[in-house]
Amino acid sequence: MEQGVVVVTFNYRLYAFGWLSLDDPELEIPGNAGFKDQVMALKWVKENIANFGGDPERITVFGQSSGGGCAHYHTVSDASKDLFQRAIIMSGSAFNNMYGVVPRRNWALRLAKALGFTGEETDRAVLAFLETAEPEAIFTAVGGLLTEEERDVERLLNAFGPTIEPYVTENAFMLDHPERLAVNSWGQDINILIGGVSLENGPLIPLLQNLRFLFPSFANFSTWIPSSVEATREQRQIYGALLERTYYGMSEPTPTNIDGLVIVSRK
Fold first, then answer.
1. Contacts of 153 (CB under 8 A, 6+ apart)
2. Between β-strands 86-90 and 191-195, what pairing exists: parallel, antiparallel or unpaired?
3. Long-range contacts, stretch 120-125, CB < 8 angstroms, 24+ apart
4. Residue 55 reports pLDDT greater than 90
């Protein structure tokens, strides 16, 4: 490292493995296990970083894209209170549709049915079935659970993600919507840097250029209007047109003119 910092990275559970949420409190799977993995890691850092030359009173949480969303969630969750003193939120937000709260729907049942489940449609029966499924099969199936409207209109990124937990537990991470939690969150008292990166969606360029049937949906700016903005479909089209004009001027997005969709700024 060229500067006087210690960088710590860690893994956490993803997709159904990290975000499965069931309503039955007896099953003790309220959701947000991925966040709880992160909280455990942050606690470890605070307790042990001094042994690696770090300062437990100068911890900065930072992330980009979904990592930026995670950093934002930690600033509004009491489960993370006092585990860090600063946050850098890059190109992600707990308020953004892609990384925001996933609506509570029959995701677990959909997943089980995609894997061949035909049993009683209860949380207990679904869980028992999923516990016998191959991890690789679960990983493959989660990508096909969203409906076209959920994917293209609601702009949900995954069927399994951050959720408002259905009942109170000792280590609950989120019991209300982050937009409401943020009003009085502990994170208001710490330093937070918020911004974007220059190649916002750069990794998607080859995908959108090679699989051109995906491009019209991705380039529909009206679908990027946050769901918290109360607007009719017609109003969203107007807002989308304003956004497109901001990034493209008199030109228009195409697979060969993709910069406005992925480049936030350039010098």
1. 223
2. parallel
3. 122/24, 123/22, 123/23, 123/24, 123/27, 124/24, 124/26, 124/27
4. yes
The number of residues in the chain equals: 267
What confidence category does residue 266 fall into, taking pLDDT thresholds of 50, 70 and 90? very low
Helix (H, G, I), strand (E, B) or coil at 85: coil
Contact between 205 and 193 under an 8 Å Cβ cutoff? The reply is no
- 3-state secondary structure (DSSP) of residue 73: helix
**Closest-CA residue to 183 (of 94, 100, 104):** 94
What's the pTM?
0.86
Residue 254 DSSP symbol: B
Tell me the C-alpha distance between 213 and 217, whole Å. 8
The SS3 call for residue 35 is helix
pLDDT surpasses 70 at 138? yes
The whole-number average pLDDT for the span 139-155 is: 85
Question: Which amino acid is present at 95?
Answer: F
The order of strands in the sheet holding 86-90 is: 60-64, 86-90, 191-195
Q: pLDDT tens across 228-258, in order?
A: 777 888 888 899 999 888 888 888 888 888 8
- 3-state SS track over 220-239: CHHHHCCCCCCCCHHHHHHH
Torsion angles phi and psi, residue 48, rounded to 5: -120, -10
